[in-house]
Write a structure and sequence with these properties.
With 404 residues, the chain is of the alpha+beta class. Among the domains are: 68 residues, Alpha Horseshoe (Serine Threonine Protein Phosphatase 5, Tetratricopeptide repeat); 62 residues, no CATH class; 106 residues, Immunoglobulin-like. Helix content is 57%, strand content 11%. It has 15 helices and eight strands. A hairpin with an 8-residue loop joins strand 2 and strand 3. Helix 2 runs antiparallel to helix 3 and helix 9 runs parallel beside helix 11. The longest helix is centred in the N-terminal third of the chain and has 29 residues. The protein starts with a helix and ends with a strand. This is Cytochrome c heme lyase subunit CcmH.
Length: 404
Amino acid sequence: MTLFWISTVGLVIVAVVLLAMTLNSKKVNKDEQLRDELNKAFYKDRLTELEEEANEGLVENQEDLIDDLKQSLLDDIPHQDKVEKTSLSPMTVLIPSVALIVVMTYGMYMHFGGASKVKDWQEVSGRLPELSKKLMEGSAEPMTEDEMQDLTLALRTRLHYQSNDSTGWLLLGRIALANRDVTTATDAMENAYRLEPEDADVKLGYAQALMMSQDEMDQNRARGLLNSLLKSEYVDLRVLSLLAFDAFERQDYPAAVRYWSVMQRMIGPEDSRYEMLTRSIENAQAKMGEPIVQGKSVAVNISVSPNARLPQDAALIVSVHPADGSPMPVAAARYPLGTFPRTVVLDDNNSMMEGRKLSSLEGLIVRARIDSDGNVATRDGDWYGESQLAELGDTVELVIDQQY
């Protein structure tokens, strides 16, 4: 605000200076000088004409005419004392004009310029760190509607000047999602995704916004983003929840049951959400008109020994084998190394053998290996781990703590 008022004072000063320059100009004197020069030129021309007429015999009283011409020239010269009495001092006009400029400028701004709103806007923008911290950390008292509006305004202001702030766009998109503002949410998440296309949180937020759209192409793109997240570092419950809800809305009840079942295995029966997921599964089963055979996938919780040294460019390979320990996997998947501990889910889509699905196994063993060179045939120096015997539908615990 200080800069704003300084700039307005500067503009007013410029206006006053221009006015003073105009009042101090010698326009009147220049007009009189031009008039005198014009009268002199007219007088000389008329003398020349009278002389030519006298030579031609057209004029007999040449001297009388010259006297009349001189008198006319004298009558056209204004009296100096009269001019001095009627002329106004420049300061007499300048002072009231300056006062009028200042009063009209600031008076009209205070009335029509929304000065109070600008002040409130500046104060809200200054509270951005405080409001953001309250939203992200989650205080005992939830944010009021006015605080959410203030946070949105402050974010929009910041993003106007810092359009490459992906975190700001993500936060604005989440607020819009909470307010069911589809247009703002989609635009904000799209900007965040454009800046950070590989960030898992940004992908998930963009998928959430696209899921709210009524456009089939937007929804298909959201499904693509969610499916890519299933193959990333770990499975986020929100990804499975969105896929389950979308499948249920599209009346793909088997897929909805599969996703909800995986969520149950990931959170365990002690979680308060377990019963809610059970009711969702039962609702989908009722829609199908027949019972569903659950347990068609394997959720694997993977951790790494503190002694293991993992290259940054390595990859994680997870494979499911029959209970007899056969080296040939029935299903397998490859993931970026990411962080640990993490959870991955394998189902029939990861099956490796023609005619034999993961869901056909009665017992299984899960193996995980950190592939350091990108060649699955070489294992020298790679770290690996193996689970205990498990059944389809179990949540498998696995620790990578051995080295070839």
